[in-house]
C-alpha cells in the first residue's frame, strides 16, 4: 500500500521567517493512518510519568514514549515509515521521536512552547496525528492576537518552526465530548550533545516516587 496520499500544498496557519505553522490535512492515506495507529498502540512502550509543577507533583495527563531515530528501532513500530513520509515534505535530519497517547477527552497537554536548548535550529517540529481528532490551540505569547485552533485529523501533519517557540505557545485542552484515543508522533532535531547524553525525550525529567 502506498504510504503517501499525494499531499497537497499545506495550509499556512501562522507566518514567520522560518515557515511558521503549516498544516497538511492528509499526509497519510486513511488506511495507512489506521494501520500505524494500531501498530503504535500495541507495540509502543507507553509510560505514565509525573512532573513537578509549581509546588507540587502531578501526573502527566497522557501516556508517553520516546525513541532515538539514530539507533535500531524496536520491531513493530512504524516510526521509520512515518519519518519517511514526513521528510518527503519536511527534509530535516530528525533524530528523535516523542509519542503521546491521549486516552480520552480527559487527557491533555497544557499551553507551552518547546525549550530552544532542546532543539537544533532552524529545523521545524513535525507532528503526525493518528486516531481521534483533537483540537490544538496556538496562542501568541504577547497576547496581542487572538488564539487560533486547528483540528488535528488522523493522518495529518503539523509543522511548527523553531522561531515559533519564541513567539507562541501551543496545547490541547481537555474536552467533555466523547472522543476516542489519539496518538501524536512528534519528530524533533535534538542537538548532538543532548543525544550523546541520552536526552532525546522530554526536556523535563520524570519524578521518581518516594520510597517509604
Automatic annotation (TrEMBL):
Pfam families: 2OG-FeII_Oxy_2. It comes from the Bacteria. One of its GO terms (biological process) is DNA alkylation repair. GO terms for molecular function: dioxygenase activity. Residues 93-191 form the Fe2OG dioxygenase domain. This is Fe2OG dioxygenase domain-containing protein. InterPro entries: AlkB-like, AlkB-like_sf, ALKBH3, Oxoglu/Fe-dep_dioxygenase_dom.
Amino acid at each position: 500500500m502506498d504510504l503517501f496520499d499525494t499531499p497537497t500544498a499545506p495550509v499556512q496557519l501562522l507566518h514567520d521567517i522560518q515557515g511558521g505553522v503549516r498544516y497538511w490535512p492528509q499526509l497519510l492515506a486513511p488506511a495507512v493512518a489506521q494501520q500505524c495507529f494500531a501498530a503504535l498502540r500495541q507495540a509502543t512502550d507507553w509510560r505514565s510519568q509525573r512532573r513537578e509543577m509549581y509546588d507540587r507533583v502531578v501526573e502527566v495527563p497522557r501516556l508517553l514514549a520516546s525513541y532515538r531515530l539514530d539507533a535500531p528501532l524496536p520491531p513493530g513500530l512504524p516510526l521509520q515509515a512515518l519519518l519517511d513520509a514526513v521528510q518527503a515534505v519536511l527534509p530535516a535530519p530528525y533524530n528523535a521521536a516523542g509519542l503521546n497517547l491521549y486516552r480520552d477527552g480527559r487527557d491533555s497537554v497544557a499551553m507551552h512552547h518547546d525549550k530552544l536548548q532542546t532543539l537544533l535550529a532552524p529545523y521545524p517540529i513535525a507532528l503526525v496525528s493518528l486516531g481521534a481528532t483533537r483540537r490544538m490551540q496556538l496562542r501568541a505569547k504577547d497576547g496581542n492576537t487572538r488564539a487560533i485552533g486547528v483540528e488535528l485529523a488522523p493522518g495529518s501533519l503539523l509543522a511548527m518552526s523553531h522561531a515559533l517557540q519564541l513567539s507562541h505557545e501551543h496545547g490541547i485542552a481537555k474536552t467533555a465530548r466523547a472522543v476516542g484515543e489519539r496518538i501524536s508522533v512528534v519528530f524533533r532535531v535534538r542537538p548532538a550533545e543532548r543525544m550523546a547524553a541520552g536526552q532525546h525525550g522530554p526536556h523535563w525529567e520524570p519524578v521518581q516516587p518516594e520510597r517509604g
